[in-house]
Design goal:
380 residues, 2 domains, 13 strands, 18% strand, globular
């Protein structure tokens, strides 16, 4: 865009927590690629005291806004002070709670631009009637609402009674170039204790109930009983202070079914491209998704993908082309889909290539960032 500004536009991204889930990874990636001649980004969050290395490396102002679990007016005021003191021109709030807490600082205390990004249609669909009504009021006075997929955008319109001119879809993107050659690189199999002839199934997702690791574990348990030389990599972690934490149940199932030798729980990792290079099949069994970053990254890495037939996942998996969709809870169906890929290397290669082509053509980070930049500029 051929536009001139007296100073870089100060953009504050507001996220829920200092945790590397899909929405946090997207914000981290967007900030890393924003045109610094035009934009001066910063990030604020509410939960989590320890700053992740990925955010430190961005070299931008980072603001922890301590918040109690209940409605916290003090946190609103602190965020409003950040917006005023840093001369923030535009706030991009990711998820509904950051939208609520950003509204005071943007529209009441400082009268600045506010753009809301929603990552999950289910998240807002499950809001109480009171919060849906509040959302209609807040978004009616905000500047734009973004859905990370057309389905999420439609859910925003339905839930908050917004017209199409107030909403836009910007599909999530990943830095596809980070995954381009990793299938040919030496991977981490030796250090993980994996033999070369073992076929690796993997998932990258924090241990939250909505990710439904138990569905995958039950199917993999059946595969292990049949004697297949395969391992399952679980990349992610649980958080003890949230009700969504599924880690105790996951670890109990692994122990009770004596899967410890074949199921590796790797915790939080920063070397995702290298871990994906070790995998032969990627599987995501979530109950619901927006447009999952982890699945796009797996596709960019050239992996065949298996997932549940739910919103977000079915936007990315084309059945029998780059992978398979299975119905939620159908353990036998998931086992069958995984076995088809486990026993057929040529199928894994051809479907993996289709995944890569789709990721590079439609889900690049450069395209995603350009869409955000254009929207920020047009809003101002």
């Amino acid at each position: 865009m051929a536009m001139r500004f007296k100073h870089p536009i100060n953009v504050l991204f507001v996220i829920v927590q200092m945790e590397m889930g899909g929405s946090e990874r997207l914000v981290c990636n967007i900030v890393s690629k924003l045109d610094r001649k035009i934009f001066n980004p910063s990030i604020a969050w509410f939960f989590g005291d320890e700053i992740l290395d990925e955010f430190k490396k961005l070299d931008v102002p980072l603001y922890h806004i301590p918040k109690v679990k209940r409605f916290d007016v003090g946190a609103m005021r602190i965020l409003g002070n950040v917006i005023r003191q840093d001369n923030i021109d535009l706030v991009n709030a990711h998820h509904f709670m950051p939208l609520v807490y950003s509204f005071y600082g943007c529209k009441i205390a400082n009268r600045q631009k506010l753009i809301y990004t929603e990552h999950s249609g289910l998240e807002i669909e499950k809001l109480s009637r009171k919060w849906k009504a509040a959302g209609r009021y807040l978004l009616g006075r905000s500047d734009r609402a973004i859905g990370v997929s057309p389905e999420v955008t439609k859910q925003i319109q339905r839930t908050f009674k917004l017209s199409s001119d107030k909403t836009v879809s910007i599909r999530n993107g990943v830095a596809v170039e980070l995954f381009e050659n990793n299938r040919e690189k030496v991977c981490l199999k030796t250090s993980l204790g994996i033999k070369n002839d073992e076929v690796i199934v993997g998932i990258v997702a924090n241990f939250h109930k909505i990710k439904n690791h138990m569905f995958l574990l039950r199917a993999f348990n059946e595969i292990s009983k049949d004697g297949w030389r395969s391992k399952l990599l679980l990349v992610g972690q649980g958080f003890a202070n949230i009700s969504e934490n599924a880690e105790p149940k996951i670890r109990k199932y692994i122990a009770e079914n004596r899967l410890g030798e074949n199921v590796l729980t790797l915790g939080y990792r920063t070397d995702i491209p290298e871990l994906l290079a070790c995998m032969d099949i990627f599987c995501l069994t979530s109950l619901n998704e927006g447009l999952p970053i982890s699945l796009i990254e797996a596709m960019a890495a050239g992996l065949p993908v298996v997932g549940t037939n739910v919103d977000g996942i079915r936007d990315l998996i084309i059945p029998n082309k780059n992978g398979f969709l299975v119905e939620q809870g159908d353990v036998e169906g998931l086992k069958k889909a995984l076995l088809l890929l486990l026993q057929d290397e040529s199928m894994r290669r051809s479907m993996g290539q289709e995944s890569r082509n789709l990721a590079f053509s439609s889900y690049s980070l450069d395209r995603c960032v350009q869409d955000y930049q254009n929207l920020f500029l047009s809003s101002l």
